[in-house]
């Protein structure tokens, strides 16, 4: 079944009891049992909910996993996945991951004895020498946030398997429509469902899936034990959003490519980061492991002092964190999404104060370009 069809008919896409073509929202917190210790399939909503289960089956189908898990946020999913490790375990962490992920490691997970090293995972030739005796996993974003670095999932996975360590991929920027990490050798795939999967800036959610039954059992146990599950209303919203993911991703990408052409030719722009650009360092690899380049663009202004003034001058691009919604958003990573990363570490990773990140929506592309033009003019660039 083609992934476009899976998005609509995958998982559990209707209600077997009534025939409803939209899975109902089950708000029940508990369920009547057939007898003592004899549940009909569900017993308590933290442990399982029919609406959430339909979503979990869907993400497993889309990513090629054996089971899916839905959480109250992307970070709740990440925290649960890293709760499968033990005190003293070491994780290799990509150097420009989402600031919240970095904060989770730096401020929370280290308190429980988890160790980590920050590396540029896009430089695969450097990976093996960073692996220690206690290294248990490599955590990557590809494309990464916000520099859109591309990491070789297949190459990393081969190295990881040689050393008996896991590969965990945050697939948020690509979505299952443009990239399939499990098929490329990864062990676990994570998503901030808030972004492209939901697509309408109206839900906070995290999704996890794996094609390893042993890992699935561990994650499922911890999902229930820790309890950061996604509620039925948000599960329904996310499943509804996924049904239109394919058409939205095509529009996001189409608009992004037009804007990349405009920015690349503008004299006030120092550099554009977008894997669809032939000049992008990871373009060839992105072409190999992705079927599209998504809708996030980062760029640097020649005059870095103008970055904040520029984003505040935009009218159609909403100044806001997050990404992947139908509306276009703009932010300055150094003071917004990645402010929790110390300045020296940000700059070492290439996240400059002049860097601007666009999440390109599905508006008419000429209106978006006109908005950028007027902002350039307004700030004298």
What is the strand tally?
Answer: 14
Q: Which regions contain 5 or more consecutive residues with pLDDT less than 50?
A: none
Output the structural class: alpha/beta
Rg computed from alpha carbons, rounded to a whole number of angstroms: 21 Å
Description:
The structure is a single chain. The chain is an alpha/beta fold and 381 residues long. The protein has two domains: 3-242, Type I PLP-dependent aspartate aminotransferase-like (Major domain) (Aspartate Aminotransferase, domain 2); 245-378, Aspartate Aminotransferase, domain 1, CATH 3.90.1150. The protein has 14 helices and 14 strands. The strands form three sheets. A seven-stranded mixed β-sheet has the order 3-9-8-7-6-4-5, with helices on both faces. It has a five-stranded mixed β-sheet with strand order 10-11-14-13-12, with helices on one face. The radius of gyration is 21 Å and the shape is globular. The model has no long low-confidence stretch (mean pLDDT 94).
Brief overview:
The protein is of the alpha/beta class and 381 residues long.
Please describe the structure with a list of short key phrases separated by commas or semicolons.
about 375 residues, alpha/beta, Aspartate Aminotransferase, domain 2, Aspartate Aminotransferase, domain 1, five-stranded mixed sheet, 14 helices, 14 strands, about 35% helix, globular
């Amino acid at each position: 079944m083609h992934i476009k069809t899976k998005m609509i008919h995958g998982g559990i896409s209707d209600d077997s009891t009534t025939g409803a073509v939209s899975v109902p929202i089950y708000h029940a917190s508990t369920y009547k049992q057939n007898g003592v210790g004899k549940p009909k399939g569900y017993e308590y909503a933290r442990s399982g909910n029919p609406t959430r289960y339909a979503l979990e089956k869907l993400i497993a189908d889309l990513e090629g996993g054996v089971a899916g898990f839905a959480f109250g946020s992307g970070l709740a999913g990440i925290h649960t996945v890293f709760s499968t490790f033990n005190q003293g375990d070491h994780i290799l962490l990509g150097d420009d991951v989402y600031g919240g992920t970095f904060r989770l490691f730096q401020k929370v997970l280290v308190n429980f004895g988890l160790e980590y090293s920050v590396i540029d995972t896009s430089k695969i030739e450097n990976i093996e020498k960073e692996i220690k005796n206690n290294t248990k996993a490599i955590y990557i974003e590809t494309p990464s946030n916000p520099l859109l670095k591309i990491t070789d999932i297949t190459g990393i996975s081969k190295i990881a398997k040689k050393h008996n360590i896991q590969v965990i991929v945050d697939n948020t920027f690509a979505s299952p429509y443009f990239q399939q990490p499990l098929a490329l050798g990864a062990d676990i795939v994570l998503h901030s469902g808030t972004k492209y999967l939901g697509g309408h800036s109206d839900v906070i959610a995290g999704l996890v899936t794996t094609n390893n039954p042993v890992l699935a059992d561990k994650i499922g146990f911890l999902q229930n034990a820790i309890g950061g599950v996604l509620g039925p209303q948000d599960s329904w919203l996310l499943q509804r959003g996924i049904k239109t993911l394919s058409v939205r991703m095509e529009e996001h990408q189409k608009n992004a490519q037009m804007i990349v052409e405009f920015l690349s030719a503008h004299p006030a722009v120092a550099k554009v980061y977008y894997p669809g650009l032939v000049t992008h360092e990871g373009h060839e690899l992105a072409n190999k492991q992705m079927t599209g380049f998504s809708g996030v663009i980062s760029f640097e202004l020649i005059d870095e002092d103008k970055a904040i003034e520029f984003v505040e001058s935009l009218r159609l691009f909403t100044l806001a964190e997050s990404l992947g919604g139908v509306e276009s958003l703009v932010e300055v990573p150094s003071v917004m999404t990645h402010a929790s990363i110390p300045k020296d570490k940000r700059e070492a990773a290439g996240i400059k104060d002049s860097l601007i990140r666009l999440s390109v929506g599905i508006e008419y592309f000429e209106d978006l370009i006109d908005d950028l033009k007027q902002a350039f003019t307004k700030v004298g660039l």
